[in-house]
Structures are given as structure tokens and as C-alpha cells.
From TrEMBL:
GO terms for molecular function: hydrolase activity. Residues 131-150 have a biased composition (Gly residues). Signal peptide: none annotated. It comes from Brachybacterium tyrofermentans. This is HAD hydrolase family protein. InterPro entries: HAD-like_sf, HAD_sf.
Length: 291
């Protein structure tokens, strides 16, 4: 067996395609864990849209792009928008008539109209794949498939809740779409504490993307976990394909990107492997000697 490793795997576009993970990936995770390695999911999704059967495959789940860290049943970190900042974000998005979802570990908080638009997007699949599929991402061709682990877009729809007061909701991140102003402008209007990431499907679409706290990064989840389990950072591995994986890939002892990722993501990695349809996680584990 190789020296004990702690592996962090992105979900959409890395471990799964359109919210469904191939059985081969699940089997590789089980075998690597049986060999003594720690395997964690590290996703931009909130925990509320990670299917229980997916979460159960791993030793822990880092969700909300590092905002929420759970190892076993222990929550190590749970960072959310401060109340005043969260209310201001909601006010700005409502003023611009943006469709959005407030991402929390227990729900996707939406207005009634946004909930309706989410359901409409999920029920009208179109081609495409995303690095971090959220409520505003294209659900893709996997909506009717259960060939693997996970429920595809249904995991998103099932988490949607419509509260009486969106501004009072506690949340870690915001997904948005159909905005008439660029995502970066929305972030600037809300405040300097907020950063923006473009749409995970196409960087040309400035009307969709996500808003996050600048203090939160997947790298933080990696570092917290390594310290918690007593492993040196040199023993960590990160696998991802998106811009929100950059910090994690750079922080890890070994970074692995997915073929077709943006140049800056590939440059942060030691090597690259295929996407989920070609079982790239299996390839990565084999190259690392984890299986």
C-alpha cells in the first residue's frame, strides 16, 4: 500500500456528470478507503444538494466550496454570510430581478418565482457539463439517467424551499442566473467581502454564476481536514476541474486536473486524467497507487 493519503475530490465534472457518479468511481473510493486512505468529497454544492448515497461513499464532505466541513459526523467548520451582508445581498439581487438561490447546508432558499424557474430549467434538459452544477447551471443530458450514484437534477429540486423572508435566511453561498448585469458587478454592489465566479458551463455567460465570501476557499477545507486527521499537507491529493478548485489544487501535495479544464486549472496540477464518463478518478487512484 502507498503511504496513507487524504484525497479531496470535486463533484460536478470530476466525480460525477450531471449529478450522477459512475459506479466505477464509487467502487474506487471504497477500495481506496479499505486500503487505509481517507477520501473526501470537496464540492461547491451545499450539503443540501449532495445526495445521501453520494455523501455516504466518503469519509467526509467539504461543501459550499470550503464553507462547511464535515468529517464523519463531526462538523469542523460552518461559515456563512454575516446577517447584515446576507440581507444586503438579497436586496441587491431582488432589485436587479435576478433569479437566485441561497445555498445552505439544509436547503436552497428561493423566492417563489426562482423556485419555479429552477424547476423549469431542470425539466428542460440541454447539452452541457459543469464544473460545479448549482441551481442556475444547465442540468444537462443526465436528467433521466440513474446509471450510477446520485439523482441528477432531482437533488437540486428536492432541496428548494420558499421562506417568508429571504433576507432572514442563513446561507453560505449564492447561485444566480438570468441576470441583466454581470456577476462581478453584483458582487461589487453587495460589498468587498463578496467575490464572484462565472458560470461553470461557459465563461462567456456573464449573467450566471455564483457569489461567495472571499474568505472561503476549498483550500481551507483541505488544510483543516489535514490538520484534524494528523496528516502533513504533502500527503494530500486534490482532483478538480473548475475555477473554485484552483486553491485546493495549489494547496495539495499533489494536484490533479480533469482533461478539458481551463488552462489555469491544468497549470495548477501535476497531471491530468479524463472526466467521469471515462472514469478519471479510477485512473488517478491507479497512478497514485491507492488501489
Amino acid at each position: 500500500m502507498a503511504d496513507r493519503r487524504c484525497v479531496f475530490i470535486d463533484f460536478d465534472g470530476t466525480f460525477a456528470q450531471h449529478g450522477v457518479a459512475p459506479a466505477e468511481h464509487a467502487e474506487a473510493v471504497a477500495e481506496a478507503r479499505a486500503n487505509g486512505h481517507l477520501i473526501l468529497l470537496s464540492t461547491g454544492r451545499p450539503a443540501s444538494i449532495v445526495a445521501p448515497e453520494v455523501a455516504a461513499l466518503f469519509d467526509g464532505v467539504i461543501s459550499s466550496a470550503g464553507g462547511h466541513v464535515r468529517i464523519g459526523e463531526e462538523v469542523l467548520h460552518d461559515e456563512r454570510f454575516p446577517a447584515a451582508l446576507g440581507r444586503r445581498a438579497v436586496e441587491v439581487l431582488l432589485r436587479h430581478d435576478v433569479a437566485f438561490a441561497l445555498e445552505a447546508p439544509d436547503a436552497l432558499w428561493c423566492s417563489a418565482s426562482a423556485a419555479k424557474r429552477i424547476r423549469a430549467r431542470v425539466e428542460a434538459p440541454a447539452p452541457g457539463s459543469g464544473s460545479e452544477a448549482g441551481p442556475g447551471a444547465d442540468p444537462g443530458a443526465g436528467a433521466g439517467s440513474r446509471a450510477g450514484i446520485g439523482n441528477g437534477p432531482r437533488d437540486i429540486v428536492d432541496a428548494v424551499r420558499v421562506p417568508e423572508d429571504l433576507g432572514a435566511c442563513s446561507f453560505a453561498k449564492i447561485s444566480l442566473w438570468e441576470s441583466r448585469v454581470p456577476v462581478e458587478q453584483l458582487a461589487a454592489e453587495i460589498g468587498p467581502e463578496v467575490g464572484a465566479l462565472p458560470n461553470s458551463i461557459t465563461t462567456e455567460d456573464t449573467s450566471s454564476g455564483e457569489l461567495h465570501l472571499r474568505t472561503v476557499d476549498k483550500a481551507d477545507g483541505l488544510l483543516r481536514t489535514a490538520e484534524h486527521v494528523g496528516l502533513d499537507v504533502s500527503a494530500t491529493v486534490a482532483i478538480g476541474d473548475g475555477l473554485n478548485d484552483l486553491g485546493m489544487l495549489r494547496a495539495a501535495g499533489t494536484g490533479i486536473s480533469i482533461e478539458g479544464a481551463r488552462d489555469e486549472v491544468r497549470e495548477a496540477a501535476r497531471f491530468e486524467v479524463p472526466g467521469p464518463s471515462e472514469h478519471g478518478v479510477v485512473t488517478a487512484f491507479q497512478r497514485l497507487g491507492l488501489l
